[in-house]
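FAQ: What does the model actually see?

It sees only this:
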Amino acid sequence: MFMHNKRLQYTVRVAAPNPGLANLLLEQFGGPQGELGAACRYFTQAVGEDDPGRKDLLFDIATEELSHLEIIGSIVAMLNKGAKGQLAEAVESEAELYRSMTGGGNDSHTTALLYGGGPALTNSAGVPWSAAYIDTIGEPTADLRSNIAAEARAKIVYERLMNVTDDAGIKETLGFLMTREIAHQLSFEKALHSIQPNFPQGKLPGMPEFTHVYYKMSEADGAPRGPWNEGPEWTFEGSPTPAVDGGDGTATVKIPKKDIDVLQAMASRTASDTSVDPTTGADLGAGQATVDV
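And it is asked to produce this:
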């Protein structure tokens, strides 16, 4: 059961309308790193979670993300207050209205016209929100890591949004939202490491002969090495050759006898004849074909 409190989680103070900034903030409303995506990600994980502690954690953070969605939506609505009335009532001249829509970095005319200045479930380029933004896989040790990364990406977007506004009230609110991304990362980190062991993810340990092998797959010389490919736990293969399993590196399949004749007939029918070089459409189009007179 959800209950809605009409007061925001954090007070929103907007100094003046700014449709361009409103459009940029849609990135955290309906964008891939935005609050709706986070809320849906954690809510669906919570519904499927069997551990009571993690279930409670995921529901709590999912619900808070909806509160953050409400904050961002409210900021967008306040920033668009003037444009909303102008679009609806056409109080400005055509030239002035167009200038107000396209000025200040507001590149998405789609969001202005289709949604009338209201907060739309799109990113800042007008691309509709998609459930494809949610990459839950149903394994806590993988999902919690993904959640940590999602919160980190959202924090970076908030930092960048704070850099493009001088509105003190908006900066403060975005700073709060950015800080909550840090808090959520900490909670998810603790939840991840309360599962021991939590690496590798899933049930199977992997093939031990390949788990701690680093293959140098690029030819660049002088690349620095570090703990990711150097040390007692690593076997470093500087010039790996196929096949690393000791086989010949080819792909084979056992064909049922009934299919062999059919496959041989198809191979014969589609075989290339390298002895012929016919005139083609490309030759004709390039003017390279000879014409007998």
